[in-house]
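User: Some background: our group keeps a shared notebook of sequences we're curious about, and every so often someone picks one and asks for a predicted structure to add to the entry. Today it's my turn. The entry only has the sequence so far, pasted here. Could you supply the structure so I can complete it?
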Amino acid sequence: MKISRTAVIVGTLTVSGAWMGGVALSQAWADTTTKTTETKAEAKKDRIDDRAAKTKDSIDDKTTVEKARLDDKAALDKARVDDHAMAKKNEIDRQNNPQATAKDTSMSKEKKDTAGDEVTDAWITAKVKASFVGDKALNHSDIHVDTDHKGILVLSGFVPNEAARAHAVAVARETKGVKRVDDKLEIKSTK
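Assistant: Of course. Here's the predicted structure to add to the notebook entry:
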């Protein structure tokens, strides 16, 4: 059986074309698989990034609450120490100078009252702030507390609803030493 040169060439070209077509098809399939794999990898990376961001936010929130709690505790401790130191100083002054003139006594009383008011006001502020920390009724609130030298407490900042506002004012009013509460809280929803 004699095969012509043309038939051999045609056969070779057919086989080569089929082989080349198979290679091209394999490459196209590999490219599609690679793109699908890359897309899945990017989606997984995005999910991981989202989870990491939520975890970081949660940690930041907990850190902020803990820092506020520690700041409030430190303010209370400082107020107690200052109050104790002031009482000790006054006791030593009375022991060292029992024959003070009426004028000197009234002067030292004015200073004592002023310093005592400052300590008391700091204590009131710290006590109210400490009462707010961890209070579930005040979740999502940002309340600022300030006390002037006459026992008047000013609440400012934001609360999520009217119930939280009423609760914050009630807690502040129940605190020892508070004579009046000025409510400057604003309602800001946390949606």
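Suggested note for the entry: Residues 31-187 form one domain. Residues 101-119 have pLDDT under 50 and may be disordered.
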